[in-house]
Amino acid sequence: MGKLLVEGGYRLTGKVNIGGFKNAAVAIIPAAILAGDVCIVDNLPTIEDVNILGQILNDIGASVAYDKENKEMKIDSTKLEECYAPYEIAKKLRASYYLLGAGLGRFKKAKVALPGGCEIGSRPIDQHIKGFEALGATVNISHGFIEAEAEELIGAEIYLDVVSVGATINIMLAACRAKGKTIIENAAKEPHVVDVANFLNSMGADVRGAGTDIIKINGVDKMKGSTYSVIPDQIEAGTYMIMAAATGGDVIVDNVIPKHLEPVTAKLKEMGIQVHEYGESLRVVAENKLKKANIKTLVYPGFPTDLQQPMSALLTKATGTSIVTETIYEGRFKHIDELKRMGAKAKVEGRLAVIQGVEKLSSAKVMATDLRAGAALIIAGLMADGTTEISNLHYIDRGYECIEEKLLSLGAKVKRAI
Ligand SMILES: CC(=O)N[C@H]1[C@@H](OP(=O)(O)OP(=O)(O)OC[C@H]2O[C@@H](n3ccc(=O)[nH]c3=O)[C@H](O)[C@@H]2O)O[C@H](CO)[C@@H](O)[C@@H]1O
Ligand SMILES: C=C(OP(=O)(O)O)C(=O)O
């Protein structure tokens, strides 16, 4: 499972290069099968979720060549005949559910074990199912599998009851190959929704309006292979910005789209951190004592839930009392108990975490309970006295590429251990 040892007290300086966006990559890889042709996806993050999706596609009959060094995956789905993902592998990540939309679009049929992913509260998929059914599919859940099948997919108007990134993307995937026009209302506007739409259009799909809350998809009979580069990971970038702030550092976070990071930039500035924008990079300079801030997670362009945990770690050392409100996932505060082991003063009340800043954190043995909880504990470890031992490193490897190499290059003292 692995551990990360983090020796606190070192100031991060220098430049870190941000990889491709996990949450876009994990949708684009399954989406590639829609073409029934050869797609080349580059700027992929070297993370476990990408390895697993490549493996699933290979196992079911696509030919996948993953060149990790060049961050590029060639997916030839010409000979693929079915879309199936067994429990043992589908449970390892959330994004296995995109094989449903992609499989429905390509074969009018898909069978995928119920997905896994971070345990951060209940994660229903009713809106995905509602969308598939509106397109004419029959969806059954039995023995832990979701099976979707349609004689024909017909475009439809679908109003999402909740703003869901996964449902928006999954419906887009299936609707690309439906007959006629699909309109998704109350769609998610996150940058990865736009990235997936751009990839689909590069394959010959006709998707318009991604990035707004109404997406229109005109179904097409045929799609073709394409070469596509994934956008930078706003969550990885935000995490390194917070790490720079946590260590009184001076870090250039390179290869980012600054617009995607505006909610983080605004909060860091409110806390007394300088953030300078230069084209595709952000420089974070932390010279002053951290001031408290209140955080409320919201759908894009609000503060992203995936950065709530890293940000609450930072707030443990800010002057004053900060309130963190988690509106997306009711169970996304498991990291708070671990932070308390390190001397943080915080309490969770339902959807709120009340964090009273302390002068100092002390190292401890702690456990990552999910991906971003892991990032939060690294941040706490960087700020603490002594060496923090973070177990369950496999969660962090799901979504942060080369975490120890990147941190070492910035001057942190970290070590991977068994
Ligand atoms: C692989 C991936 O991209 N994961 C991201 C994706 O997850 P994911 O796509 O699973 O998250 P959603 O946007 O779907 O979930 C948002 C909210 O809607 C609810 N919901 C969702 C679907 C549904 O059918 N019914 C329903 O009620 C969820 O419980 C949650 O409260 O977006 C989340 C919110 O930005 C991020 O935290 C995850 O990192
Ligand atoms: C919750 C996350 O991922 P997933 O949806 O893949 O579990 C995340 O990236 O923070």
Automatic annotation (TrEMBL):
One of its GO terms (molecular function) is UDP-N-acetylglucosamine 1-carboxyvinyltransferase activity. Pathway: Cell wall biogenesis; peptidoglycan biosynthesis. Cell wall formation. Adds enolpyruvyl to UDP-N-acetylglucosamine. Keywords: Cell cycle, Cell division, Cell shape, Cell wall biogenesis/degradation, Cytoplasm, Peptidoglycan synthesis, Pyruvate, Transferase. The keyword RNA-binding does not apply. It comes from Anaeromicrobium sediminis. It is an enzyme of class 2 (transferase). HAMAP family: MurA. Phosphoenolpyruvate binds at residues 22-23. Gene3D superfamilies: Enolpyruvate transferase domain (3.65.10.10). This is UDP-N-acetylglucosamine 1-carboxyvinyltransferase. One of its GO terms (biological process) is regulation of cell shape. One of its GO terms (cellular component) is cytoplasm.
